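Appendix C reproduces, verbatim, an entry submitted by the partner laboratory led by Prof. M.T., so that reviewers can inspect both the input and the predicted structure.
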Amino acid sequence: MTFVVSMNIKELQKTVRRYYGEEYDGEHYLYRFFDIFLELPAPNLKNYYKMLSEKEDFSVGGISYWSYCNYLVSQFNFSLRDLNQFLLLSNSATFHFRRLSKIFYDCTQSDGFTNTVYMYLLPYMIALRMSSIEAYNSFVNGDSMGRLAECLSGSQSFKKSMEVENDDVKEIVTNLYKGIFEKRDGRDEPFIKISDKLTLEDPKVCYEKLVSTCSMISSYVKYD
């Protein structure tokens, strides 16, 4: 009978030293119990993500939602475990808006634009919250845009969906963040002007949808 044990060998060695003392040889101590040590290679996140995305790809007008999520995974340096959690939360939070984006793609520009914005902001907000709850709170309170402009400016998928050039992305993202998260209370504007061609719904409504959906207790959320 052969026993195969999966473990983090470095952490187990630390546990042994904490028990017997920091000077104790934790590595050789484990040889008493295991005959052969096999070190698994680091997971290939790119191939793993490709396998997942091939099962359920989503695109509107040739713009891939999965490619954007993959881009965020690399930007936040997520581990394999982080990647799985991020996709579960992101896919669940954006399900409603991804469905509407398909419906509205050939309809009015404002409806299509509104749902596209949710598809890009929600995954970023979820990734940010997983990375740092302090940075997330600062973001939703309108205190700091953080890496939003940087991330969206580097996303080919976002630029294609907005139909803008590199020089215009940061301005659009900045207007988007200010319109939704900064000074949203006590405003009379029924919409947010992002650019000369793009407008978004009432900032209060947009803010409430984003934050409640990102909390995963919204009626817009559908768990995979």
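The radius of gyration is 22 Å. Additional entries are available on request from the coordinating office.
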